[in-house]
Amino acid sequence: MLDDRIRAAMLHGPGRPDADGVSDYVTHLVAALDGIGVEVTPGPVRPDGERGLGQRGGVVVGPDTGVHRKRDADLGSRHDARPRRCCDGGSVTTNSAPTTAPTGLAGAHRRLPLPDVLRGVAILGTLATNVWLFATPGSEARFLTDATAISAASVGTAEPVAAVVEGVFRFLANGKFLALLTILFGVGLAIQHRSAVDRGRSWPGGYGWRALLLFVEGTLHFVLVFAFDVLMGYAVVALLVAWLLAHAERVQRVAMYAAGALHVALMALLTLALAPAPPGAPADPAVVAADARVFTAGSWADQVAFRLDNWLALRAEPIVSFGLLVFLFLLGVRLFRAGAFDPDVRGRALRRRLLVVGLGAGLPLNAATTLAGPEFFLFDRYVCAPVLALGYLGMVGVLLDRVRRPGPVTAGLTAVGRTALSCYVAQNVLCVLVAYGWGLGLAHAWQDASPWWVLGLWATVGLTLAGGARWCLRRYGQGPLEALQKAALRRLPAS
């Protein structure tokens, strides 16, 4: 129920304002709100000539509104997260978390839903690429003899329908979701930077400890679980980008475009250098068979030893694509600052533009490099795929804009996104247990059932992650690795 004084302001004030009565109406309402301890700050003039109330920390009247109650320093009052109706029929929503910023700050920022959904899509999308490595006899070892094993050019069946299904699935996944995940990591870094600035903290401050912890987590994941870990590379790039965020935007912009240009030049040179023997060229069958036995019949310790023996070759991807990672991190920062994830008119316009440009340019570019053969594998995965990833970002955003009431799909993706670290590691652990020889060994036993059992594995693991993530959030509010990470950071200085 509205406070009596607000109701009185609405009943005895000038009523529903027209263009001439806005000032008196606002005056009555502000006086009533001020009487019950609600902080009100002037808002922008809308296109129709009316002025809303408030920005961060205030009250806005209208459909795109938010209410932030003034924090009581003595009583430690919390936000009321229940939606309210305002006098002109627009909804008034509140932050769902208590304000922890000190007095005088603009106020807490509401968590944006789109990055969580996109992160969930990216996590399950990276599995859509990696699942083919898990399910192929030889698994991680095959990458050393055929780097194109995850591309659409390496369809492993001659049956026409199965070949088309597998080819399309690989085409839509290869490199695209890795690029999307990288962009979102940059978005997360931008959010942390903004939070530090809002609280008056130095930047990067203790972020180095976060990056170091991420590198340790990635190293353990690489050695113990899966050779194609992304966390190690992200940790190194995050340190560089965190340092860049402490500098002027012009410096960041120059670094972004320089990294992108150098990366494209490197991919062109490597493509020319590898032309006589492209990544998909036939390898020595005896070597392939010996490496394959490590994953079809070897023990877990044998696989750990294999990764350590071949660590440099297996870590080639983040080294070769370092420039791309820097570019995509900074692109994520720029998209976030431009409002591409905001639930407003500008954000929706940017998402539509990303959808049109990303899909319009990305689909033909990726189709061309895929059909050109293994000679263009590097361009396909590390140059053209990020373009289509922007289209995916825009497409998911546009679809989410049109969802009036989130359903189980949105809830599942959001849960996976909010527990991204746990889900990323868990999906690889589950696939190892199902596919490798020391587990169920289905990669070898069911190799003739590809691609159907592989698609089933991807869907089963995805549903398991979504259900498990939702349970973890309901029960504990976070994923297990997120909790472990926070506990470790609390014990580190200035983190």
TrEMBL record:
Residues 71-87 have a biased composition (Basic and acidic residues). InterPro entries: Bact_Transport_Assoc, DUF418. Pfam families: DUF418 (PF04235). Keywords: Membrane, Transmembrane, Transmembrane helix. Residues 335-487 form the DUF418 domain. Residues 44-104 are annotated as: Disordered. The keyword Transmembrane applies. This is DUF418 domain-containing protein.
